[in-house]
Amino acid sequence: MLSVWQFTPLASMLTRHEELRTSEAATGTIVQGKCRALLCSLARKGTNMLRQAIKKIPGAKRTAQLLGLATPDERQFLLEMLPKRSIGAEIGVHVGDFSQLILEYVRPKELHLIDPWEHQGAATHERALFGGVAGDQATMDARYGGVRARFDRQIRAGSMVVHRACSGPTLAQFPDEYLDWIYIDGNHLYEGVMEDLELSLKKVKSGGFITGDDYGRKGWWDDGVRKAVDEFAAQKRADLLVTRNFQFIFRRF
User: Fold this and answer.
1) What are the tens digits of pLDDT across the range 168-217?
2) Which residues have C-beta within 8 Å of that of residue 182, sequence separation ≥ 6?
């Protein structure tokens, strides 16, 4: 039987042992937590580095989507409908993001980018990308310069032509039935969309596509895209194939 003087040190040792075990467990938990945080941080950095690397290779957007690093573009189905190695035109270029997708998906033989890159200061365009959102002409000039720099290789190769002008006079310069398709994403007001549709009907080949953006999407344009497209469809001069994901696609008879 242990005496009191023997028991007291033993109890103290047991207490100290338990304190050490508790401290070690707490330390282990902290270390594990820090390791997990470090691994998560490295994973995020690795993913970001992979995203940046993917952007530098041809077909970047599609590669990122296949690897689960980017969500499909709402216009992907439309891009997959356009014929490869075709001749096409994009009206309304902004900074060239959709132009890049066209290159990756369609690989056009000849791509015409049409945009005046002209600031519009009227109250009607206060919320437009080329109006109040842009701020001033200097911003529009910078966008134009950015597009030319972004696609310098294609421009020098002659597979891309950048037209800094409004769609009306630019399309008028093309021979009739010259283009395989046109994508309309310029002036969203009813009058502007209707003018682009009318001109496209002349410039797109029989069996070609007249397509565009923002059908049914709410915006500063007072539903001008939907109104023009619906009226054009009612005239039965082209076959309205689909309206989906705010896109519209006509096939010319």
Assistant:
1) 999 999 999 999 999 999 999 999 999 999 999 999 999 999 999 999 99
2) 88, 89, 90, 91, 171, 196, 200, 203, 204, 209, 210, 211
